[in-house]
Fold this protein.
Amino acid sequence: MSLYNLKASSSTNKLAHLIEKNREGFYPVVEFHPNSEKLVKLDLSANNNELTADLMTNTEKFGHYVSNKLEREGARYAIGGYGELRNVYSRSELFGGEKEEPRRLHLGTDIWGRAGEIVYVALGGMVHSLAYNDHFGDYGATIILLHQLEGIPFYTLYGHLSIRDLENISAGNYVSRGQAFAHFGEQNENGHWPPHLHFQIIEQMGAKEGDYPGVCKYSEREKWMANSPDPDLILNMNRWLH
């Protein structure tokens, strides 16, 4: 690991500890009532034998698979994915192919549900950037927020949103804790995925705007996961998994 990566890892550990210290103060990113609603894990790793090649490459079938799981389990959301090694990204050339190591390790948490589900601001901040990443397998509508905790800046990325969420928001706008600012997008506008939210914490954005890798090469996992700590530090949802 390079000197830069060692510094990033040390700094991100500090950020993770700071976020964890404040985790009870974050507003829920999605509406969820644990006393009356159910949350289940969705495994998209190679360990899930239900994920056939046909299912992964066909968006309609993939969508039916997710919605059927939610209905079968009686759950409002399915969740998972941080640090998960996923073959599902073979469905898109965006994640690399035969000539180099493909990107397969997921750096965010996915919350799978119905299109139109409202997304809320976990903690106040400013809109850093936004974009419509309109490629098959990409984020679709994407918003990135900049926050500070005790003087330490970091970012949160919200991917696979509704394209209408980009219409009345601009970089530099301020957002408040608990503000409803986005929605789960339909599959024809969210990068052609079943409706869900990709939520990711990012310490250093570099020069990127409106986009940031949510999937990395397995061989580079230490560097990328150091810069994107566990999203559940903010989401606080894994404790409700069945």
